[in-house]
Amino acid sequence: MSRVAAPRPIDRDELKRWLDAKRPFALLDVLPPEVFREGRLPGAVNACIYEVTFLDQVRALVPDRRTPVVVYCAGESSLASADAAERLAGAGWEEVRRFAGGREAWREAGLAFEGSPGEPPAERPRNGTYTVDPERSVVGWVGRNAGGSHDGTLRFKSGRVTVKDGRVAKGVFEIDMTSIDVADLAGDMADLLRHHLESDDFFAVARHPVARFEITRMAPIEGATPGAPNYEVEGEMTLRGVENPVAFPATVGVRGGELALEAHFDVDRTRWSVNYGSGKLYARLGMHLVHDHLTLQVHVLAKV
C-alpha cells in the first residue's frame, strides 16, 4: 500500500503552470454550489466542504485516489480549503495540494475565471418599511431555578422595521402574551406552569395581554463577521405595563429578500415587576426560588 502524503501548498504561479501545461489533476472548488456557479477557476469542479456528503461528492468526481487534487476556496482568510485538504488526505487521496490564495489571489492577478467572475456584493436590505411575519417569527424564553429550567415560546402580534440607507433605523414590535407556551413539559404539568406564568405571579396576562419593544437606536458593529452580531440595539421594552430601557447585540441580515433579525440576551424580570420567587425581594423561599434573569431568544422575519 502506498504511503498517504500530507497536504502540501501550491502557489498561484505553480497552479497556473499546471493548468497551462494541461497537467492531469483535479482542481476542486470547495465552496457552495451557488458560489461556484458565479465564478470559478478554469476547469474546476465543485464539492462543498460545508456539506456532510463532501467526501462522497469527491469520490464521484475523483474516483482514482492516485489522481493529484488541488483544493481552493475564497482566500487566505478562510479555513475551508485547509479543512478540505486535511479531510481528503485522511480519506486516502495520495497527493493533495492546497491553493490557499484561492479566488482572491487568482482575481488579484487578473487571471481568467469561468462563469461570472468575481464575488457578488454583500446583499444589503432595501430601504423601506418591513412588516413582521407573525407565523414565522418567535420569541423563545428560558427561566431558571436552582433545580433546573423551563423553556417555551411567545408569538408576535405585529411589528414593523424601517430601513434607511441600507441600515435598520427603527422598529416597533408587539408580542402576544396570551400565546405563552411551555415546551419542556407536557399535559397537565405544562398547563399548570402556563397558567402560573399567565397569572399575576408572573406576567398578569389578563390585564397586560401585549408586550411591546421599540427600537430607539441601532448602531452597526464595525468589523462584524458573518454569523456574529453586527448591530448594537437599544430600545424600550414594555412588559406588564412597565417600560424600561434594554440594550443587546443582534444579528441582522437579508435572506431571500426578507429581513432577518436574531438576538439572544438576558433581562432582569424584576425591573418589570415580575417578582415571584425573587431572592432579592423575598426571604426563605426554599424550593420556590426563581432566578431573576430571564433569557430571551428573538427570531424575526419581515418583508416589504
Please provide a written account of the structure:
This protein is of the alpha+beta class and 304 residues long. The chain has two domains: 8-115, Rhodanese-like domain (Oxidized Rhodanese, domain 1, 3-Layer(aba) Sandwich); 128-303, Lipocalin (Beta Barrel). The chain is built from six helices and 16 strands. The chain has helices at 12-20, 33-38, 54-61, 80-90, 102-108, 187-198, and strands spanning 8-9, 26-29, 39-40, 45-46, 69-72, 96-99, 114-115, 128-132, 138-145, 148-164, 167-182, 210-220, 231-239, 242-255, 258-268, 293-303. Strands 8, 9, 10, 11, 12, 13, 14, 15 and 16 form a nine-stranded antiparallel beta sheet that branches. α4 links the parallel β5 and β6. The longest helix is centred in the middle third of the chain and has 12 residues, at 187-198. It is elongated, with a radius of gyration of 26 Å. The N and C termini lie far apart (61 Å). The mean pLDDT is 94.
Short structural summary:
By secondary structure, this protein is of the alpha+beta class. The chain contains six helices and 16 strands. It starts with 7 loop residues before the first strand and ends with a strand.
Largest sheet: 9 strands, antiparallel
CATH superfamily grouping of the largest domain: Lipid/polyisoprenoid-binding, YceI-like
Contiguous helical run count: 6
CATH class annotation of the largest domain: Mainly Beta
Q: What is the CATH architecture annotation of the largest domain?
A: Beta Barrel
Low-confidence stretches: none
CATH topology of the largest domain: Lipocalin
Q: What gap, in angstroms, lies between the N and C termini?
A: 61 Å
Per the principal axes of the C-alpha atoms, what is the gross shape?
Answer: elongated
Q: What structural category characterises the helix and strand content?
A: alpha+beta
